[in-house]
Structures are given as structure tokens and as C-alpha cells.
Design a protein that fits this description.
Structural class: mainly alpha
Shape: globular
Strand order of the largest sheet: 1-2
Helix content: 55-70%
Number of strands: 2
Strand content: under 5%
Length: about 300
């Protein structure tokens, strides 16, 4: 399913309301998308009155392929709020009444910790998750966000829960998990890094033919600045060959070197001595862009619409 602009001229408001009551979820989702394009509808009411529509529709994600979403998640992703107050009302209702939706999980990366949501978020992080939506690896898009939201509360009793869930799902960790361990560090998470490195670091690079997660890994573990993190960084840096598959790892090597260099500490002293000449070479060849001319490129003053 994708937004078909031809509906603008083909369907009246009354007909859209009828389509929004169809038994077919694709027709409902299409109708809601068109309603959200028309000023004749109250967009906030459309959003708040259909948060329980969990039927799944396939949506066109362009270069990303096909995403599978609940109709209510699709409405949320397509909606725009007139102000943050209305958006916060939506967030409150989604977290407290509809936290089975994927949008409830993704919202947790964008809001500040509020004690009134703590029990909901902890439940979202620890309950068995049945996938509603985008991917065939529901843990990636769901529980990871809940763990990030839980970590924001900085409660010591939750660290073991977070650590154990990260370890048991290390194969599917993404930037969300690495950001969690960087922003809310704890030495307990060193076990997560060690598990991920042993089981998944090289496997993910070579199977996915991507170094994105590996870059997040080295840039996060480097901030821990101790002997255990130094051991892993040294092993990666000095492995021969650096990566034993066809993935392009030039960027990973550069980010690894800078991760070590940008986190000076006693534990990394030997590593920093080893890479010093490479850092000097990088800096010598670095291109420095001139400052932006405010006359030639004036600041963008267009007010952005409030999205999820």
C-alpha cells in the first residue's frame, strides 16, 4: 500500500468516512491516509479514535522494500500534530492504553523518563513480545526501544534485566542498544560487549555485508576505558587479516582508530602509541570545509511539522 494522490479527486469526504469503516484493512488505511491530507477532517480525532486498529497492511517503503504495519501504526507514522501538547496526549494514550503497538516502543527513544510511565515501560521490556508490524525480527524494533526507555530511569535494579536481555538477543542488537550502553554506561554491560564480540561481531559484518553495527560497537565500547574494553579493541585492531570476508571495512578501520584516539586513558596507552602515526596521517589529509556563509545560505526558518 502507498499513498495514491488520485484519491484527492476521486473520493468525497463522505465516501472516505465509508471507506474508513471497510472490513478490508487496506481500504481503511488508504482512507485514513487521505483524510490526513484534507483540512476538512479533524486529524487529531482520526488518530485518537483508531489506535485500536491492529490489522496488518503491507506498506511501500521505497528503497527499503515492504514494511508490514498495523493500521494504527500507519496512521501514527503518517500523522502530523499541530503542537507538542497534542502529540504528548497521543504518546500518553499509546503508552498507557495501546502499548502493544510498535509506535509505543519507538516513542520511548524520544521522550524523557516520567515515573508515571515506568511500570508500563518495564512491562514492555520484559513481557513476551508478539510481533505487530515491520519486520521478521520483532526484538529489533520493539524490546530494544523499551530497554532504552527503561535505562533512562537509571534504576540500579533494572541493569541486570537490561544486561540479560541484551545478551540473550545480542545477535539482533542495533544502534539503539549501543546508544543505551554509551549514554547509560555500567560495567555490567562489558559482558554484553564480550558476548557480542565473540558470537556476532564478524558474523554480522560478513553475512550482512555491512559494518554499521561494528562501528557502533567499537565507538561504544571505547568509551568504557578499562582493561576489558582495551583487550577487545586490541584484538580487533591487530587481527590478521582485519576482516576475513569481502565486506568493505575501510570505514570501520578508520572509526576504530579514532574511537581509541578520542578516549585517552591508561588502559589504551599502548594502543594509542601504536596508532599515533596513522592518526597524524589522517589529520594531515583531512579536508576542512569553509564556514557557511549566512548570506549565501540563510538559515531555514520554515517551521517543521510535528511528526512521530
Amino acid at each position: 500500500m502507498y499513498y495514491d494522490s488520485s484519491l484527492q479527486n476521486m473520493v468525497t469526504d463522505k465516501e472516505l468516512i465509508q471507506l474508513g469503516q471497510s472490513e478490508h484493512p487496506v481500504l481503511r488505511a488508504s482512507a485514513f491516509r487521505e483524510m490526513l491530507q484534507r483540512k476538512s477532517f479533524n486529524h487529531f480525532d482520526i488518530l485518537m479514535n483508531h489506535l485500536d486498529d491492529t490489522a496488518i497492511v503491507a506498506t511501500d517503503a521505497g528503497e527499503w522494500g515492504i514494511w508490514y504495519r498495523a493500521v494504527s501504526d500507519d496512521i501514527i507514522e503518517e500523522a502530523k500534530w499541530k503542537d507538542t501538547a497534542d502529540k504528548n496526549k497521543t504518546i500518553d494514550k499509546v503508552i498507557t492504553k495501546h502499548n502493544y503497538l510498535r509506535s509505543a516502543y519507538t516513542a520511548l527513544s524520544k521522550i524523557q523518563p516520567q515515573e508515571k510511565y515506568y511500570s508500563y515501560i518495564k512491562n514492555m521490556a520484559t513481557r513476551e513480545r508478539k510481533s505487530i508490524g515491520d519486520n521478521n525480527k520483532p526484538w529489533i524494533g520493539d524490546v530494544e526501544f523499551a530497554l532504552y526507555g527503561l535505562a533512562k530511569f537509571r534504576k540500579q535494579d533494572d541493569i541486570k534485566i537490561i544486561k540479560n536481555l541484551l545478551i540473550s538477543n545480542a545477535w539482533s542488537m542495533s544502534a539503539v542498544s549501543f546508544n543505551l550502553m554509551k549514554e547509560f554506561p555500567d560495567t555490567s554491560y562489558l559482558e554484553v560487549f564480550e558476548t557480542y564480540y565473540k558470537r556476532n561481531f564478524y558474523r554480522n559484518i560478513c553475512i550482512d555485508n555491512s559494518v554499521d553495527n561494528a562501528v557502533h560497537f567499537v565507538e561504544t565500547i571505547a568509551t568504557y576505558k578499562n582493561n576489558r574494553s582495551a583487550k577487545i579493541l586490541e584484538t580487533i585492531l591487530n587481527k590478521k587479516p582485519f576482516i576475513n570476508c569481502s565486506a568493505d571495512t575501510g570505514w570501520l578501520k578508520d572509526r576504530l582508530i579514532y574511537a581509541i584516539w578520542d578516549n585517552p586513558c591508561d588502559a589504551y596507552l599502548k594502543l594509542r602509541q601504536q596508532i599515533a602515526s596513522q592518526v597524524r596521517e589522517y589529520e594531515k589529509n583531512r579536508i576542512t570545509l569553509p564556514p557557511v556563509d549566512p548570506v549565501e545560505f540563510p538559515a531555514d526558518t520554515v517551521i517543521e511539522k510535528i511528526r512521530w
